[in-house]
Amino acid sequence: xxxxxxxxxxxxxxxxxxxxxxxxxxxxxxxxDSYDLVMVDKDGDGLELAARSIQDSSGTGxxxxxxxxxxxxxxxxxxxxxxxxxxxxxxxSAGFGLFGFFAETDWQIEETMLHLHVLNLTCxxxxxxxxxxxxxxxxxxxxxSLAAFQPGPLMNIYYASKAYIHFFSEALANExxxxxxxxxxxxxxxxxxxxxxxxxxYSGSAEKKEKIVTTTVEQVARTALKGxxxxxxxxxxxxxxxxxALAPRFLxxxxxxxxxxxxxxxxxxxxxxxSP
Length: 276
Ligand SMILES: NC(=O)c1ccc[n+]([C@@H]2O[C@H](COP(=O)([O-])OP(=O)(O)OC[C@H]3O[C@@H](n4cnc5c(N)ncnc54)[C@H](OP(=O)(O)O)[C@@H]3O)[C@@H](O)[C@H]2O)c1
Description:
CATH superfamily: NAD(P)-binding Rossmann-like Domain
Bound molecules: NADP nicotinamide-adenine-dinucleotide phosphate
Strand content: 5-15%
């Protein structure tokens, strides 16, 4: 059989943020489980490298699409390229962090974040879920964060956008009940990826490694995929993270806000600010 025909009939997953971190880990695990992949990221070199190593180790079909999902209408353009496929899985993993007082942060970076975390994630989910519902099968995994459980001074737009992903995904999970499609939202604590250093870069700070990581990227990815395959609505990897997710419900909101601000300020104090 021609290779293209093989690619058309195998299980297929669409993964954003697939060049590194969690998106790459999802790609590796799904390739090992015989999924063909469409891997999307704005980091073209990283994406090519990742796809080649996955293809070499698993023999799976991989297609790479270099796309900045922080741009206006990027999800529609992406779907224009891949809309002919029937995806069994969609994972929206691309994301980044930004520190700083809202009054001082760069609007262009925040606009990119809102396009990435909110508009394009929502649009891509809509386009894919419509096709999945027609087929009567499919799984969607959206990556939020523990940040989604409370407002976050000094990481304001990040926290607010992750709360959007959380609520949007849970409501959609409820709406698609009985269609054969499931929607899962992942709400992880900190884990070891390029996230901290990329957030520091966007924020004009010194490169930084996360020090208070509680789970590894592989643990997070495995737990998330397991939950998604079971059709769970939300997945919070790790016992301590489950407690952290619950805490804001039982503590006064103003106390939570002040505590989070103090934590962010102490992190910022430890960093050598490199921008003027
Ligand atoms: N790591 C954590 O502690 C943590 C905790 C909670 C939630 N999360 C969430 O987990 C998800 C994955 O992050 P990660 O930890 O795996 O970080 P990561 O290693 O930095 O991976 C994120 C990937 O997304 C890509 N990306 C960023 N902006 C993009 C854009 N505009 N268009 C297309 N691709 C873009 C990045 O490309 P570049 O390298 O070119 O920027 C990178 O390859 C994010 O949604 C993040 O918010 C992470």
